[in-house]
Write a structure and sequence with these properties.
The chain is globular, with a radius of gyration of 19 Å. The chain has eleven helices and nine strands. It is about 25% helix and about 30% strand. About 45% of the residues are buried. The protein is an alpha+beta fold and about 325 residues long.
Amino acid sequence: MASNTLPRPPRETANPSPPRPASSVRRTSSIDVCWPDGVTGNRKFIGTARDYRTDASGEVGETLGEARFEARIDDEKQILSISANPAPPQIGELVGQRAGNHLRMMLRETMPELLERGDPLYLPLDDLSGTALVSAFGFSQWDPEYGKKFRERLSDEQFMALMEQRTNVCWGLAEGNSGLDPHDVDDVAGADAGELRNAADPEGWHDLPDEDGPGFRRARRIDVWREGDGLLRVHSSFQDSAKRRDQGRCAIHEYDLDLTIDEASREILSLTATPRILPFPECPGAIHNAQRMVGKPIDAIRDEVLAHLRKTEGCTHLNDALRALAEVPKLAAYL
């Protein structure tokens, strides 16, 4: 479908985050990326996650678990170093690996206990692959000439190969869609990211790093609470954003998810995906296929997304937001 027949892509954030619901558990996670050695140097990744339970008043809360990692990754997405707190014994096995899709498989094979117990550390580690891919966007918001300089470094053959690699990766980049046409950064990333923190709820988020210079952030929030007889309610948000020189932030991807889940069977009863910020006009169409997750067990959602929403059947960023909901059973157990 020609992009001029479609509405403009959504460009309005839902931030700030809503106050914590009463009698709920919230997991927040983030990966912050910076370039301490300049655009040609290695990137520093700081991943953080926290589980926080709120009492019936909606105000008083307690931290149930926290985790943090720091990694250095080069331009080829190879992990040069990584440390974590608390640190799984196998964390060093990630050094030398590439932060691509295979990394998720390796995490499952080498640290299965993180998945089994819903450890807060797993979610930002699982996000390393997507963040390593998208985080170059951070420099584009700091240096207006970044896109031009990047193109000049590539031969015509390299550029064509890059575009071919993107074709049919996801719904928005299906063959014939406008996302495969050349774009200026301003055409795909003009949305104000807002502020994650809500001034009315200072405990709503974990502490976020504040490094100098350009920066990128992938941030997630998952709220879980009981509603009615035997039902779980879930509200989740996902955002990719970058620092601007004026100290504001520009977002390129943002989704909200609302679900109801049968607490006993863990079956997903309803799911609403709301695109808040996306780069291309075709992108929002991916939300319809997300309904394939209704009727599936929330415990298996990582595998179900992989089985039913691959490539042009889904949006890679919406898929990541859905996959993160595999943490819901762990959070519900805290209730």
